[in-house]
Write a structure and sequence with these properties.
Residues 31-89 form the THO complex subunitTHOC2 N-terminal domain. GO terms for molecular function: mRNA binding. One of its GO terms (cellular component) is THO complex part of transcription export complex. This is THO complex subunitTHOC2 N-terminal domain-containing protein. It comes from Verticillium longisporum (Verticillium dahliae var. longisporum). The protein has one domain (2-83). It has helices at residues 2-18, 24-37, 39-52, 56-63, 69-84. It is built from five helices and no strands. It is mainly alpha-helical. 78% of the residues lie in helices and 0% in strands.
Length: 89
Amino acid sequence: MVKAFADTKSKAQGVMKRISKDNAVEMGRALAKLTHSSPGVVFKVALELMMSYGNLSDVFAECVRFFTDLTKDVMIWSLLSALGSNQRS
């Protein structure tokens, strides 16, 4: 289980590093496929990168249209959890 989460985390980091306005559709589909296995891990990586790079949030919003309803629920939970944590900078 730990190996699967680590694998998903590394794949999510790879997708999030390659995402741009030009390839938002392709990367959105790739990100949606990753969220099927473990959405919490993917959104943790995505939120960390979006907090670091502000311009990533607009492109990520385009990717959301490929997510399922359950994935969107997990995304909202992850966002609220990140906003409520004391470890924000």
